[in-house]
Amino acid sequence: MAIHILEDDPGVSDSLRLFLQGLGHDAFVYPDAESFFEADPPGADDTIIVDLNLPGISGAQVIVWLRTLAEPPRVVAITGQSQTVIEKLRASLGDVMVLRKPLSSRILADIV
Predict the structure, then answer these.
(1) Range of 71's domain?
(2) Interatomic CA distance for residues 98 and 17, integer angstroms
(3) How many CB atoms lie within 10 A of CB 34?
(4) CA–CA gap between residue 54 and residue 33 (Å, rounded)
(5) CA 12 from centre of chain
(6) What is the CATH number of the domain that holds 8?
(7) 47 near 77, Cβ under 8 Å?
(8) What is the pLDDT of residues 55-95, one digit of tens each?
(9) Closest CA to 110 of 23, 17, 4
(10) If 0-12 CB within 10 Å is exposed, 13-18 middle and 19+ buried, where does residue 27 land?
(11) Which residue from 46, 62, 70, 85 has the fewest beta carbons nearer than 10 Å?
């Protein structure tokens, strides 16, 4: 299983990558959706951690695209938005787990 991290903040993406690698996972970082789309599509056993506020193509658009795959991977959305915005997003994103930044290492470890 690989974990793909789509996050435009280098500090956040680097911290996530190092943390997840420390747990024994293969972790790949993409600063935007466009670079993620240029890579090989994720497998059904992979996990995608996607910031909803990516520059260019939004994280929500990435999630919509991932759902079109024959065997979609597991998706965890992350955002620094307010709880009110998160609740509105949950309605449009369906069963995607949404975590608010700053992320809890304990919760993240339990998820992956």
Answers:
(1) 2-111
(2) 18
(3) 12
(4) 7
(5) 12
(6) 3.40.50.2300
(7) no
(8) 999 999 999 999 999 999 999 999 998 888 888 877 778 78
(9) 23
(10) buried
(11) 70
